Protein backbone atom coordinates (compact mmCIF):
# COMPACT_ATOMS: atom_id res chain seq x y z
CA UNK A 1 0.00 0.00 0.00
CA UNK A 2 2.79 2.39 0.87
CA UNK A 3 4.56 1.72 -2.42
CA UNK A 4 1.37 2.52 -4.34
CA UNK A 5 1.13 5.86 -2.53
CA UNK A 6 4.75 6.62 -3.36
CA UNK A 7 4.19 5.79 -7.02
CA UNK A 8 1.18 8.12 -7.17
CA UNK A 9 3.12 10.94 -5.52
CA UNK A 10 5.94 10.52 -8.03
CA UNK A 11 3.58 11.73 -10.80
CA UNK A 12 3.23 15.18 -9.26
CA UNK A 13 6.02 17.45 -10.36
CA UNK A 14 7.01 19.31 -7.20
CA UNK A 15 9.30 21.61 -9.17
CA UNK A 16 6.35 23.36 -10.86
CA UNK A 17 5.89 27.00 -9.87
CA UNK A 18 2.90 27.82 -7.66
CA UNK A 19 -0.26 28.34 -9.65
CA UNK A 20 -0.72 32.04 -9.13
CA UNK A 21 -2.60 33.83 -11.88
CA UNK A 22 -1.65 37.46 -12.30
CA UNK A 23 -4.55 39.84 -11.77
CA UNK A 24 -7.09 37.08 -11.13
CA UNK A 25 -9.46 37.23 -8.17
CA UNK A 26 -10.82 34.02 -6.63
CA UNK A 27 -13.83 35.79 -5.07
CA UNK A 28 -14.91 37.13 -8.48
CA UNK A 29 -14.37 33.60 -9.82
CA UNK A 30 -16.76 32.18 -7.25
CA UNK A 31 -19.40 34.75 -8.26
CA UNK A 32 -18.89 33.96 -11.96
CA UNK A 33 -19.32 30.22 -11.29
CA UNK A 34 -22.58 30.90 -9.48
CA UNK A 35 -23.79 33.07 -12.34
CA UNK A 36 -23.10 30.57 -15.15
CA UNK A 37 -24.19 27.54 -13.12
CA UNK A 38 -21.12 25.28 -12.89
CA UNK A 39 -22.69 23.66 -9.83
CA UNK A 40 -25.47 22.24 -12.01
CA UNK A 41 -22.89 19.59 -12.93
CA UNK A 42 -20.22 19.81 -10.21
CA UNK A 43 -19.89 19.59 -6.45
CA UNK A 44 -17.89 22.77 -5.69
CA UNK A 45 -16.73 23.61 -2.15
CA UNK A 46 -18.09 27.09 -1.40
CA UNK A 47 -21.19 26.63 -3.58
CA UNK A 48 -24.01 25.11 -1.53
CA UNK A 49 -26.46 24.29 -4.30
CA UNK A 50 -27.24 22.48 -6.59
CA UNK A 51 -24.14 20.20 -6.34
CA UNK A 52 -24.83 18.30 -9.58
CA UNK A 53 -23.20 14.96 -10.28
CA UNK A 54 -22.82 15.03 -14.09
CA UNK A 55 -19.19 16.12 -13.80
CA UNK A 56 -16.56 15.19 -11.21
CA UNK A 57 -16.47 16.89 -7.80
CA UNK A 58 -14.04 19.81 -7.87
CA UNK A 59 -13.08 19.26 -4.22
CA UNK A 60 -9.29 19.04 -4.08
CA UNK A 61 -8.95 19.97 -7.76
CA UNK A 62 -5.86 22.04 -7.01
CA UNK A 63 -4.02 18.85 -6.01
CA UNK A 64 -4.95 17.01 -9.21
CA UNK A 65 -2.15 16.75 -11.76
CA UNK A 66 -4.60 16.41 -14.66
CA UNK A 67 -7.66 18.11 -16.15
CA UNK A 68 -10.24 15.60 -17.31
CA UNK A 69 -7.55 12.93 -16.96
CA UNK A 70 -6.00 14.11 -20.23
CA UNK A 71 -4.44 17.56 -19.93
CA UNK A 72 -1.80 18.94 -17.56
CA UNK A 73 -3.34 20.98 -14.77
CA UNK A 74 -1.77 24.36 -15.51
CA UNK A 75 -3.42 27.81 -15.41
CA UNK A 76 -3.27 28.44 -19.19
CA UNK A 77 -4.64 24.98 -20.02
CA UNK A 78 -7.36 25.28 -17.36
CA UNK A 79 -8.53 28.66 -18.69
CA UNK A 80 -8.86 27.19 -22.21
CA UNK A 81 -10.72 24.19 -20.77
CA UNK A 82 -13.21 26.33 -18.84
CA UNK A 83 -14.09 28.41 -21.91
CA UNK A 84 -14.26 25.64 -24.52
CA UNK A 85 -13.58 22.09 -23.34
CA UNK A 86 -15.15 20.49 -26.47
CA UNK A 87 -12.53 22.27 -28.62
CA UNK A 88 -9.84 20.41 -26.66
CA UNK A 89 -11.59 17.07 -26.42
CA UNK A 90 -14.40 16.29 -28.85
CA UNK A 91 -15.89 13.49 -26.72
CA UNK A 92 -16.05 15.40 -23.43
CA UNK A 93 -19.39 16.02 -21.73
CA UNK A 94 -18.12 19.32 -20.29
CA UNK A 95 -19.80 22.03 -22.42
CA UNK A 96 -18.28 25.29 -23.64
CA UNK A 97 -19.17 27.96 -21.09
CA UNK A 98 -20.11 31.62 -21.74
CA UNK A 99 -17.07 33.12 -20.01
CA UNK A 100 -14.68 35.90 -20.91
CA UNK A 101 -10.96 35.23 -20.63
CA UNK A 102 -10.88 37.36 -17.45
CA UNK A 103 -13.78 35.44 -15.87
CA UNK A 104 -12.15 32.10 -16.70
CA UNK A 105 -8.91 33.32 -15.08
CA UNK A 106 -10.82 34.35 -11.94
CA UNK A 107 -12.51 30.92 -11.83
CA UNK A 108 -9.15 29.17 -12.28
CA UNK A 109 -7.81 31.20 -9.33
CA UNK A 110 -10.74 29.97 -7.22
CA UNK A 111 -10.29 26.34 -8.31
CA UNK A 112 -6.63 26.52 -7.28
CA UNK A 113 -7.74 27.37 -3.73
CA UNK A 114 -9.46 23.96 -3.58
CA UNK A 115 -6.80 21.84 -1.97
CA UNK A 116 -7.35 19.25 0.71
C1 LIG B 1 -23.41 20.30 -18.34
C2 LIG B 1 -22.56 19.92 -17.22
C3 LIG B 1 -21.34 20.76 -16.90
C4 LIG B 1 -21.26 22.11 -16.66
C5 LIG B 1 -22.39 23.14 -16.71
C6 LIG B 1 -19.89 22.39 -16.29
N1 LIG B 1 -19.16 21.24 -16.33
FE1 LIG B 1 -17.19 21.04 -15.82
N2 LIG B 1 -17.25 19.09 -16.37
C7 LIG B 1 -18.37 18.40 -16.77
C8 LIG B 1 -18.00 17.03 -17.10
C9 LIG B 1 -18.94 15.93 -17.56
C10 LIG B 1 -16.61 16.93 -16.87
C11 LIG B 1 -15.71 15.72 -17.09
C12 LIG B 1 -15.14 15.94 -18.49
C13 LIG B 1 -14.16 14.96 -18.99
O1 LIG B 1 -13.51 14.27 -18.20
O2 LIG B 1 -14.01 14.92 -20.24
C14 LIG B 1 -16.17 18.24 -16.41
C15 LIG B 1 -14.87 18.55 -16.06
C16 LIG B 1 -14.48 19.73 -15.44
C17 LIG B 1 -13.18 19.98 -14.88
C18 LIG B 1 -12.03 18.99 -14.83
C19 LIG B 1 -12.20 18.24 -13.52
C20 LIG B 1 -11.18 17.19 -13.25
O3 LIG B 1 -11.18 16.65 -12.13
O4 LIG B 1 -10.36 16.89 -14.12
C21 LIG B 1 -13.21 21.23 -14.35
C22 LIG B 1 -12.09 21.94 -13.61
C23 LIG B 1 -14.52 21.77 -14.58
N3 LIG B 1 -15.27 20.83 -15.26
C24 LIG B 1 -14.94 23.01 -14.18
C25 LIG B 1 -16.17 23.57 -14.53
C26 LIG B 1 -16.52 24.94 -14.26
C27 LIG B 1 -15.66 25.92 -13.48
C28 LIG B 1 -17.75 25.14 -14.80
C29 LIG B 1 -18.51 26.43 -14.90
C30 LIG B 1 -17.79 27.51 -15.57
C31 LIG B 1 -18.18 23.86 -15.36
N4 LIG B 1 -17.18 22.95 -15.18
C32 LIG B 1 -19.42 23.64 -15.96
C33 LIG B 1 -19.65 18.89 -16.85
C34 LIG B 1 -20.00 20.21 -16.71
Number of helices: 4
Q: What's the N-to-C terminus distance?
A: 21 Å
Query: Strand content of the residues, in percent?
Result: under 5%
Strand arrangement, largest sheet?
Answer: 1-2
Question: How much helical structure, as a percent, in the residues?
Answer: 25-40%
Rg over C-alpha atoms, rounded to the nearest angstrom: 14 Å
Bound molecules: heme C
Order of helices and strands: HHEEHH
Characterize the biggest β-sheet: 2 strands, antiparallel
Which fold name fills CATH's third level, the topology? Cytochrome Bc1 Complex, Chain D, domain 2
Give the number of DSSP strands.
Answer: 2
**What value does the average pLDDT take?**
90
Structural class: mainly alpha
CATH C-level category: Mainly Alpha
Annotated CATH homologous superfamily: Cytochrome c-like domain
How many domains make up the coordinates?
A: 1
Q: pLDDT below 50 for ≥5 consecutive residues: which ranges?
A: none
Shape, per Cα inertia axes? globular
CATH architectural category: Orthogonal Bundle
Commentary on this structure:
With 116 residues, the protein is mainly alpha-helical. The protein has one domain: Cytochrome c-like domain (Cytochrome Bc1 Complex, Chain D, domain 2), CATH 1.10.760.10. The chain is built from four helices and two strands. Strands 1-2 form a two-stranded antiparallel ribbon. Helix 2 (26-36) packs across helix 4 (101-111) and helix 3 crosses helix 4 (101-111). The two termini are 21 Å apart. The mean pLDDT is 90.
What are the key terms here?
116 residues, mainly alpha, globular, binds heme C
Amino acid sequence: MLSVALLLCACVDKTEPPRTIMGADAERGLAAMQRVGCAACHVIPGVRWPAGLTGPSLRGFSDSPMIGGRFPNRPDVLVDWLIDAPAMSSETAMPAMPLTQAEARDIAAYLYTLDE
